[in-house]
Amino acid sequence: MDIQRPSNARAKKIRRIVYGTVALLLLGGVTYGLSKLRPAAPSVDRATIWPDEVKRGPMVREVRGLGTLVPEDTRWVAAQTDAHVDKWVLRPPAIVKPNSIIMELSDPTVQKDAVDAEFQLKGAEADYANLKVQVDSDLMNQKANEAAVRSDYEQARLQHDVDEKLYKEGIGSDHIRNLSRVKEDQLAIRLKLETERTAVAADSAKARLAAQQAKVEQMRALYQLKKTQADALHVRAGIDGVLQLLPVDVGQHVTPGMNLARVADPKKLRAEIKIAETQAKDVIPGQKATIDTRNGIVNGHVSRVDPSVINGTVTVDVTIDDPLPPGARPDLSVDGTITLENLKDVLYVGRPVHGQADSTIGIFKMTEDGSEAVRVNVKLGRSSVNTIEILDGLKVGDKVILSDMSAWDNFDRVRLK
Question: What region, left, alpha or beta, does residue 170 occupy, with left being phi > 0 and alpha being psi -120 to 50 degrees?
């Protein structure tokens, strides 16, 4: 029979303990090593990324926006009276002159008032002519009376001189001398009165004529107003240009102030550019700009910046300095680029998809061998359309990914394949 050996059992137990301890140590070491390993980096197709290299040198700050060409000289022709649209004489896009008739309106009341005002003016002018003849006649009569009294006075003065001389020589009597002196004094008083009466008559004539002239001018102004209203029934363009719009129909009733037609000069155009409100803070009048009309690029300058914000954009008016290329017309869609400033020596890179001026963002920087990209925090400065200033986090020669990497926001590195 078999006899159990105590020494062998004890040795086996010790071996089992040793093996178990080693196994536990190995398992713990593997677990610890695995915990220290970084998670596997996701792979990104190199063809889908947009890389760029950090550079140092001059950077032109620009802002860009979409817009349209609009006429510098636009005229809305408005109705002056209540009327009805009889017919269209011209239709868009007709070339018009200042006296070109666009449409015909009708209003019998306006035409009747114009005729009445004309006859009232003629009546006032006839009254003025009649009054002028009358006051001239009265003034001439008064001057004749003054002349007669002056003649009597001169005769009396001469007679008094004769009587005075005869009296001194002892030939004439004192009584006759006194009578001739009294007659001279009386005629001198009458002459003074007649002279004053003549002056009053002249002033009265001027005042009466001025009053009648004012009435004539009043009637003339009324006639001109009524005549203008009657002429306005023939709606004219008023300027050289192109007829753009007719917002009324034949037979429609129009009221004073209603727009009837829009005429614009197609040779004088400016660009209205919509700039994002976040980029428009540095735009000021006088800055240089370029306008891309899809058929050529022309130079211009900022002439006005709208103070209000509409739908997140600011309207900037750009006056065009160069001749417009063929095909440029009102309402043509254009691209506008405005130069803000020229930075002489800055660190810059292409503008990332989500990169905003004066912000800190995470950007994937490519390793030297180009196999991976690691996320780094970068502080951005001033921005332009396609470039942005680097303040901290990158150096010259670093290659970064500018395209949208939001799908890998939870990873600090990616593999490029």
Answer: left
Would the pTM of this model clear 0.85, i.e. be above it?
A: no
Distance between CA atoms of 12 and 183, rounded to whole angstroms? 182
Task: Tell me the C-alpha distance between 7 and 213, whole Å.
Answer: 152
Q: What is the pLDDT of residues 320-366, one digit of tens each?
A: 999 888 888 888 899 999 998 898 889 999 988 888 888 898 998 88
Each residue of 267-325: pLDDT tens digit? 888 999 999 888 888 899 999 999 999 888 999 999 999 999 999 999 999 999 998 88
Q: How far apart are the first and last CA of the chain?
A: 72
369 token code pair = 């061998």
* Cβ–Cβ < 8 Å for 265, 71: yes
Whole-angstrom distance, CA of residue 388 vs CA of residue 344: 14
Q: What is the DSSP secondary structure assignment for residue 80, as one 8-state letter? A: -
What's the pLDDT score for residue 1? 47
Q: According to DSSP H, which parts of 105-173 are helical?
A: 108-168
Closest by CA to 386, choosing from 50, 85, 136, 100, is 50
**H or E segment at 12?**
helix 6-36
DSSP string over 275-332: EETTTGGG--TT-EEEEE-SS-EEEEEEEEE-SS-BTTEEEEEEEE-SPPPTT--TT-
Region for 148 from its dihedrals, namely left if φ exceeds 0, alpha if ψ lies in -120 to 50, beta otherwise: alpha
